[in-house]
Amino acid sequence: MIRLANYSLLHNNTFGIDQKCDEFITFESIDDAVELAHELKENDGSTRSFLILGGGSNLLLTKDFHGKVLTADKRFDVEVITGDQPSESVLLRCWAGTTFDEVVEYAVEQGYYGMENLSLIPGECGASAVQNIGAYGVEAKDLITKIEAVELSSDKVVTIGADECGYGYRQSRFKQDWRDKFLITHVTYRLSRRFHPHLEYGNIREMLTAWEIEEGDLTAQMLRCIIIDIRRAKLPDPSELGNAGSFFMNPIVDKEVLDELKERFPDVRFFEVDSSISNDTGSQTGNFYHQKRYKIPAGWMIDRCGWKGRRVGKVGVYEKQALVLVNYGGATGSDVVGLMHAIQDDVFTKFGIHIYPEVNIR
After folding, report:
1. Which residue of the set 116, 128, 246, 293 is catalytic?
2. Which of 8, 36, 211, 220 gives 20 to 30 Å between its CA and that of 311?
3. Which residues contact 160 (CB under 8 A, 6 or more apart)?
4. Is the pLDDT of residue 323 over 90?
5. Calpha distance 135→141 (Å, rounded)
């Protein structure tokens, strides 16, 4: 375990915000995580002020953090679990601090498929289970089978099934009622030994045409390269321009709202999603029915409001992707929050729809 006092988090958040914490602690094993859980508890059984931090790619700091910041050791640690019998699938058990894109690269090289569309998403494996990261028609929940963690209130090592995590669009119980209750140590993903490409989302098929690749000739490595090329074309490199990737979540609306938008904005973009609605309000186990709902691209609305490429002082909206807020250098977290509120107000005024940040604001 490594401890650093009065530590600057400048290089631990991709927005490049210079805020400090009282103590920065890196845990390197399950035993370290158990020790930390015990240490965090006060005499009354509660926990002291702390922040669990991955790669900092989904974080906006607005002030110094007066407490302990906990992070998993940054190392590539992947265990391949194949089982005794031949199978169509394989399990990858990954250390929480392993960079997620390194796992995607490794999986493609080894012939384990399903992660290709998630290529180049920043962050670590532990965060993938919290955020339910997703891109181009694939989400982490489609791949995760279980999470291993230390329960901070009891110091116990627990295993949590993916079906217990309440996964939804950019959501999980780790962000809601389980927030700050577990220190994740490992995430296990199930991948396929057969390549079944997901090509319907975004402009993947357009890229296939541009690269003159027939669908039958497509390989997982080709698809990974296409996804990387698409992402690099529209997202800034955090080492050159501070950002946290997509800042806002895409709102999901019902058919009535969509029809109203179509009348006012015939060019509205939308994607159908299947939502499970419970008849048993508040119950986790009630009866469910399915209702068609529609995802409206927040970037499209922000662009229509004239924000794309607009700069306000040291912050602004990226010129190639309206979902991305950027730090041009020396900005504070409060500068970014002010820009966020201005964009939210304009979107609501024009479209009557609230948009919310995907980024964790602290």
Report:
1. 246
2. 8
3. 146, 147, 148, 149, 182
4. yes
5. 12
Question: Of 116, 139, 148, 358, which is the active-site residue?
Answer: 358
**pLDDT per residue as tens digits for the range 272-294:** 886 544 333 333 444 444 578 89
Q: Is 358 a known active-site residue?
A: yes
For residues 179 and 114, the answer to whether their CB atoms sit within 8 Å is no
> What confidence score (pLDDT) does residue 279 get?
34
Range name among 41-55, 67-81, 205-219, 247-261 with the lowest pLDDT average: 41-55
Domain definitions of the chain by residue range: 1-233, 242-361
Of 60, 46, 17, 51, nearest to 362 (Cα)?
60
DSSP 303-328: HHTT-TT-EETTEEE-TT-TTEEEE-
Quick check: helix, strand or coil at residue 242? strand
List strands edge to edge, sheet with 252-253: 252-253, 288-295, 271-278
By the 8 A CB rule, do 293 and 304 touch? no
If we measure between CA atoms, which residue out of 104, 118, 99, 102 comes closest to residue 227?
118
Model pLDDT for residues 163-219, shown as the tens digit of each residue: 999 998 888 999 889 998 999 999 999 999 999 999 988 789 999 999 999 988 999
If you classify domain 1-233 with CATH, what class do you get? Answer: alpha beta
Give residue-wise pLDDT tens across range 222-256: 999 999 999 998 889 898 999 998 999 999 999 99
Please state, in angstroms and rounded to a whole number, the distance separating the CA atoms of residues 158 and 290. 32
The residue from 93, 170, 193, 310 that is catalytic is 170
Instruction: Write the DSSP symbol of residue 215.
Output: G
Closest CA relative to residue 37, chosen from 214, 158, 211: 158
Quickly name the fold that domain 242-361 has: 3.90.78
